[in-house]
């Protein structure tokens, strides 16, 4: 079938609940069993040192934003002063969930990577999870799911924000987690933490998936792509949400949003975050970045503020200077998925902006490279009113492609 931008007509997917406001039920905690892990992930990667102002206060954070986006500032590649060779083991907090009743898809593992501003709770929203938890939606269809906090977020390690917290390291952490999962050694190599949900995990617990699907959102999709470009043979399929190659990509930059130095912004939450970590200032910026008016419930905006996470400034130039190397070893299907009115991706309107040929060129060995716009939705798909409709599209797409 020709690679097309799904929107008004979806063929078989048209039967799925994709209309804004449509909701379907997903499982409760009793239908899944989860284990909390602290995973040591060894990484070898080449980062870069970029010339940029340091951030040790909110005044510095505003200056960094203005300096980075000024027309006269050299681009990220021109600001590289040297290569930073990283050889380090990172402590990664993760959660592995499997369906309690097993099933034909229980040995298909989805590894989900969230974007900027969130930890792994992006995938498992705590407000009405039957409507907003992608993890529960995937479990209800029989999949197993691994979510984790990227370095610099949640309960994972907080590295140097300038030279270590960059895209190459994030991509190699995803590769490390994937390799452990494929080998069946993920749980055995980790520290098992006390908190579990559902039926207690067998001990010792062995889980070795037959297939692995990589799911990303926003920066997490960017990290996922760079993982696929280097380690494509480790993946059987990918859902790149909050990510769309389009004519407006790059027009909305960090200066469109207000950030503060994380430790100064909210010491009760972020005192442990060192120099170079910034965080969105408040709900107005969160709304601008992640939400579409009439497409979200106010309680979800308040929730996003409650769980928001700082960002390492090294992620910005390492994203801007990264070369899009085709994922030539990846042979699985690809779905790009964005909100119809995604501000950060498409300047507020993604309709008619998709670059199909360029997207296909990134995955030359893939049998399917397709794209889909979720109606009436902004950047944060799991927090939108029609989140479950989007989940239905994602999971239905996987099922139709044998995953």
From TrEMBL:
Database matches in SUPFAM superfamilies: alpha/beta-Hydrolases
Identification of the protein by name: AB hydrolase-1 domain-containing protein
Domain of life, per lineage: Eukaryota
Pfam families associated with the record: Abhydrolase_6
UniProt keyword annotations, A-Z: Signal
Domain AB hydrolase-1: 115-383
GO molecular function: aminoacyl-tRNA ligase activity; ATP binding
InterPro entries documented for this protein: aa-tRNA-synth_I_CS, AB_hydrolase_1, AB_hydrolase_fold
Keyword Transferase: no
Keyword Cytoplasm belongs to the record: no
PROSITE patterns (alphabetical): AA_TRNA_LIGASE_I (PS00178)
Annotated organism of origin: Lasiosphaeris hirsuta
First and last residue of the signal peptide: 1-21
GO biological process, one term: tRNA aminoacylation for protein translation
């Amino acid at each position: 079938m020709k690679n097309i931008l799904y929107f008004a007509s979806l063929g078989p997917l048209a039967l799925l609940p994709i209309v804004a406001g449509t909701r379907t039920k997903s499982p409760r905690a009793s239908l899944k069993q989860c284990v909390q892990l602290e995973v040591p992930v060894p990484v070898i990667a080449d980062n870069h040192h970029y010339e940029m102002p340091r951030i040790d206060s909110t005044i510095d954070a505003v200056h960094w934003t203005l300096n980075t986006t000024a027309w006269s500032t050299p681009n990220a590649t021109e600001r590289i002063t040297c290569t930073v060779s990283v050889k380090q083991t990172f402590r990664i907090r993760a959660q592995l969930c499997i369906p309690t009743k097993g099933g034909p898809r229980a040995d298909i593992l989805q590894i989900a990577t969230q974007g900027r501003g969130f930890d792994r709770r992006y995938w498992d929203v705590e407000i009405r999870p039957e409507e907003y938890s992608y993890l529960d939606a995937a479990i209800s269809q029989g999949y197993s799911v691994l979510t984790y906090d990227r370095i610099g977020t949640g309960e994972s390690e907080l590295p140097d924000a300038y030279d270590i917290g960059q895209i190459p390291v994030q991509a190699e952490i995803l590769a490390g987690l994937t390799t452990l999962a494929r080998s069946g050694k993920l749980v055995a190599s980790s520290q098992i933490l006390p908190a579990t949900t559902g039926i207690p995990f067998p001990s010792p617990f062995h889980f070795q998936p037959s297939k692995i699907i990589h799911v990303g959102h926003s920066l997490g999709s960017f990290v996922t792509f760079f993982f696929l470009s280097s380690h494509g043979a480790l993946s059987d399929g990918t859902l790149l949400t909050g990510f769309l190659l389009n004519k407006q990509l790059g027009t909305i930059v960090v200066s469109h949003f207000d950030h503060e130095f994380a430790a100064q912004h909210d010491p009760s939450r972020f005192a442990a975050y060192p120099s170079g970590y910034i965080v969105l200032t408040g709900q107005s910026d969160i709304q601008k970045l992640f939400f579409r008016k009439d497409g979200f419930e106010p309680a979800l905006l308040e929730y996003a503020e409650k769980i928001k996470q700082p960002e390492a400034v090294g992620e910005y130039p390492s994203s801007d200077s990264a070369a899009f190397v085709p994922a030539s070893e990846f042979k699985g299907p690809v779905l790009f998925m964005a909100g119809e009115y995604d501000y950060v991706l498409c300047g507020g309107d993604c309709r008619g902006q998709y670059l199909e040929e360029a997207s296909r060129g990134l995955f030359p060995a893939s049998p399917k490279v397709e794209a889909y716009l979720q109606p009436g939705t902004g950047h944060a798909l799991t927090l939108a009113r029609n989140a479950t409709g989007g989940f239905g599209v994602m999971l239905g797409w996987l099922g139709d492609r044998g995953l």
